[in-house]
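The following block was generated as part of the benchmark described in Methods. Ligand: pyridoxal-5'-phosphate.
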Amino acid sequence: MARINENYRKLQAGYLFPEIGRRVAAFQQANPDAAIIKLGIGDVTLPLAPAVVEAMRSAAQEMGTAEGFRGYGPERGGYDFLVEAVREHDFAARGVEIAADELFFSDGSKQDSGNFQEIFDAGCRIAVTDPVYPVYVDTNVMAGRSGEIGADGYYDGILYLPATEENGFTPDPPSSPVDLIYLCSPNNPTGSVTSRQNLESWVAYAREHGAVIVFDAAYDAFISDPALPRSIFEIEGARECAVEMRSFSKRAGFTGVRCAYTVVPQEVCGRSADGTRVPLNELWARRQATKFNSVPYPTQRAAEAVFSPDGRKQTGEQVAHYQENAQVLRAGLKGAGFRVFGGVHAPYIWMRTPEGMNSWECFDRLLCDAHVVGTPGAGFGPAGEGYIRISAFNSRENVAEAVARIRSAFAAG
Ligand SMILES: *Cc1c(COP(=O)(O)O)cnc(C)c1O
């Protein structure tokens, strides 16, 4: 019989969102009249912007004509029109020069952030912040870069950097060397955003130790202070030690459409066993050419439309809507005496659980007494214990109602 990849058996059985789903379904079944407000899973709720829909529609029609038909896409995934739009609007506008052959398009940053580890040796040492977007850890566990998970919730062999109130949820580099570092800013789940200074210290660390930073900027559109870095490539020296992932999912509601890209500068290298420096761009190009066949043409036209004047206006309003929701949550919960973090440059509120509850107790209490679904912080890593993540992806009405219900549920209890 075929042997399985034993590393998969190291993964934690009760994955966070299925467990949340089970508890919500059980509660709904027992309380069919309860109007549950879901502020759990980080998925957008607003419909696609009209400019995006129009671009998809017209691209689909084009594909139905002899002249407009397109088959497999370009090697690095992106058609010129999208590559150029990204270079101009996401980078040149912030003073960052990115070459066309440094952009790799894909069907999502979840995939990119999960797949990128494939081009590194199985012995590479990984560092993540804790709590963390689970994809970074689980994909490295699957690839054999960890031992078993301990009773403390940490995998053996992975370095966890606690993101705490004390460090503003943006940990500094460790004192020991690692090979691969995952950073996410604005952060899921804590809603924090990294400062220029913090990012500079990470770039300095990576250059000193020959490490590579995988920078996940899926929420960059939520940064409302123009002085904060949106791209790691705004930091000097980052081209030698970092790759960056961006997605259209949260900025333009593409979670169901699927389009993202990864920047791999020509300078960033790993080394082979004999010490030769090998550009990661070359390896990633080879990996994508072997395992991926680009993003659908109508999807790329839709992504291009995000940068058009109408598209920028419409998607900007969507992001602003979620930002205002976050503000409603933040102010409402803070005003009721809860300790809340994040929610300024990110669509997530990171709330300290009241009354010394643990994350899952707080989750159950919110569900049963307020009929509101959050996400237990402990599901993102041990340092998330004692917190709950509340998402701003919902209607204004629901968000305001959720605040009122949470306030009265806890006031009563
Ligand atoms: C939502 C999210 C993404 C985006 O994933 P897609 O696959 O592009 O939809 C990436 N990273 C983090 C941390 C996220 O929360």
